[in-house]
Write a structure and sequence with these properties.
Order of helices and strands: EHHHHHHHHHHHHHHHHEEEHH
Number of strands: 4
Helix content: 55-70%
Largest sheet: 2 strands, antiparallel
Structural class: mainly alpha
Low-confidence stretches: 7-12, 631-642
């Protein structure tokens, strides 16, 4: 393999038309349905993750509206208890496993290669496999719900309630298999992000020059690697107890129901930060761009991201304060719950300093960031309160916890996500979202959110338990529930305005140009939307400020062959060029493997022999992964290119 050469814009290695023709031919996928199923483009798969996750978000949101309508009136009979339990479980499961994590993963898959200056993720076919597992698993879950066999023991599925004695039938078996499938998909994305960010960075992008968004995704990926196996183990044990009669969680036979909670929450609390940490990356990118200056405190922000990831693994027991654990042990988890506020506070102060020292431009993405700061600080304060054992015991399993949870996750993740979609919408589509409609949707969503969830704090303090489908009128909860339900309708209207803005602007929005925000990161150095090969000439980084640094837009890489899908690999610390790596092209086999895997897990709902039968098609389709997508193609038409 030959090594890359570093050059400047004034000395291209090939005529531009010839280079573009070669790259287009090398990186394109076949047309038609087979080509659509075979794609390995990070941009295409990233967009699919985001769109699919928002489809699941809409389904879960409709379920939330149904629950709010049921709770708006005491003694309401709009939804029966069985259906309510299914809707409640589907809402939480979908939001956590099919929306919040996958949508962040989709943003990572789309943006990380562009931000580090490479043309695709490290293992493209594995990336495609991860997406198909995710979408097929989600279809399996919602198919069960529409067939009235959806899971109904909560998104956490605690035994013994979720065990065979108290939940017969196949509802919880569907849940258990879904969890394993979604975590397989998440682990795939984690591998992609880690390897791409560490070994395919643009030359010159040393560790202290990596964009904060990429650092956030790296931290997210490592958290997935360490957290997801715990919940996979819990779901496999639960499925085994239900299907083959093991007793991992049956105390009568030597098992332990609390073992499940420890495994689940060892994943479950890092899960909150797996969702939240990428949002911190969104905020840092938006604040820097709209402050018109590099973000203040880069080392502190990076260390805060890493510290948040580490500390998040020491908090899980604060979900279990009511289970009768030793008080000395609980005190350590209280301390950790308070400690994690420090790195989060550092981040907020760094963003405030950036805005204060810059020249803020209050466009819609920055408004979403400001809404995030207000909402997340409120959610963080109630989180510190819940980290205290005496208070937690008083409000445990009440609507106070529901309010805190949504303030942290919706305020801490969805607000930055909507700001990020607004910010990067020109990169995805080449058009700008309507600024007027964007500000209106922000105002409506912000108002509707607080009207929905702030009253739940008061409901919880007044004793209303969560996970109930009705209540007696004499309890006095009806007025606050009606305010929350009205707020939910306003919130839904705000989200509908945002979606309408996206749909309208996708075809009729103002043309954005390549860099409408005059941002400093590398994704804006290629066209918007980017071509299938990402960069005509992969960039070279000369300073942490990226494209804002003197000469930051003038250096690029030459010498990478353009007739095959090659990327440049660089070393870990200083991103010095090493080798050209040819990536595998489009293939139908990752899709076929995903179908085989999901079908096998679906069969495990009914019989353990599905694992034996399913191993045959899984192995057969895996054999097709090394097959090249096409033979070497000679550049026959280049002689006539201008």
């Amino acid at each position: 393999m030959t090594r890359a050469r570093l050059g400047e814009r004034s000395e291209p290695a090939l005529p531009e038309a010839v280079a573009r023709a070669r790259l287009e031919r090398a990186w394109s996928r076949p047309r038609g349905v087979v080509g659509w199923l075979s794609t390995v483009s990070h941009a295409e798969i990233g967009r699919r993750y985001v769109v699919t996750a928002f489809v699941f978000f809409a389904l879960a949101g409709l379920g939330a509206l149904a629950m709010r309508m049921q709770l708006a009136f005491a003694g309401n009979t709009l939804i029966g208890p069985d259906r309510y339990d299914q809707i409640f479980t589907m809402h939480g499961t979908t939001m956590m496993f099919l929306f919040a994590v996958p949508v962040m993963e989709g943003m990572a898959i789309y943006l990380v290669p562009l931000l580090v200056g490479t043309r695709n993720v490290a293992f493209p076919r594995l990336n495609a496999f991860g997406y198909w597992v995710f979408v097929l698993a989600g279809a399996m879950l919602w198919g069960s719900f529409f067939l009235d066999v959806g899971p109904d023991a909560g998104w956490f599925s605690y035994p013994p309630l979720a065990g065979p004695e108290f939940t017969p039938g196949k509802r919880q078996d569907v849940w258990a298999q879904l969890i394993s499938l979604t975590e397989i998909s998440a682990l795939v994305v984690a591998v992609e992000v880690i390897v791409t960010a560490f070994r395919q960075r643009a030359p010159g992008m040393s560790l202290d020059r990596i964009p904060l968004f990429v650092w956030a995704m790296i931290v997210m990926a490592f958290m997935i690697v360490f957290a997801m196996p715990a919940v996979m183990l819990a779901s496999v044990y639960l499925a085994s107890d239900r299907l083959v009669g093991t007793h991992f969680f049956n105390p009568a036979e030597g098992g332990d129901a609390l073992l499940y909670q420890h495994l689940f929450w060892f994943f479950g609390h890092p899960e909150v930060y797996i969702i939240f940490v990428p949002a911190l990356g969104f905020v840092s990118s938006i604040v820097a761009t709209f402050s018109r200056r590099p973000v203040f405190g880069y080392p502190a922000l990076v260390l805060s991201l890493v510290a948040t990831g580490f500390i998040s693994f020491g908090l899980w027991v604060h979900h279990m304060f009511a289970t009768g654990l030793p008080q000395l042990g609980e005190s350590f988890f209280t301390a950790a719950s308070l400690l994690i506020a420090i790195p989060n506070g550092v981040q907020i102060f760094c963003w405030i300093a950036t805005l204060a020292a810059g020249r803020p431009v209050f466009r819609t993405p920055l408004l979403w960031v400001l809404g995030f700061v207000v909402t997340f600080v409120l959610g963080g304060l109630t989180g510190v309160m819940l980290g205290s054992v005496p208070l937690d015991l008083q409000v445990h399993d009440s609507f106070f916890v529901v309010a805190h949870f949504h303030y942290v996750l919706v305020g801490g993740a969805v607000f930055p996500l909507l700001g990020a979609i607004t910010y990067w919408f020109p990169k995805l589509t080449g058009r700008l979202l309507s600024e007027r409609l964007g500000k209106l949707s922000f105002a409506v969503v912000f108002t509707g959110f607080h009207a929905t969830f702030f009253p739940m704090h008061l409901l919880g303090l007044d004793g209303m338990p969560r996970r109930v489908y009705t209540y007696l009128p004499e309890r006095g909860w009806e007025t606050l529930n009606q305010v929350a339900s009205a707020g939910a309708l306003v919130l839904a209207a705000g989200v509908a305005l945002f979606v309408a803005n996206v749909v309208w602007s996708r075809r009729r929005g103002a043309l954005a140009g390549d860099d409408p925000w005059d941002a400093d990161t590398l994704e804006w150095s290629t066209s918007s939307p980017p071509p299938v090969y990402g960069f005509l000439h992969p960039p070279v980084v000369v300073a942490r400020e990226g494209r804002w640094a003197p000469g930051g837009r003038d250096h690029f890489v030459t010498g990478i062959p353009s007739d095959e899908p090659y990327v440049l690999t660089t070393n870990l610390v200083d991103a010095e060029p090493e080798l050209h790596q040819e990536l595998p092209g489009p293939s139908i086999f990752p899709f076929l493997t995903a179908v085989s895997v999901v079908a096998t897990f679906a069969g495990l709902i009914f019989t353990p022999w599905a694992l034996v039968a399913g191993s045959v098609p899984i192995f057969a389709t895996l054999l097709g992964w090394p097959i090249p997508s096409h033979a070497k193609r000679a550049p026959a038409a280049e002689a006539s290119a201008p």
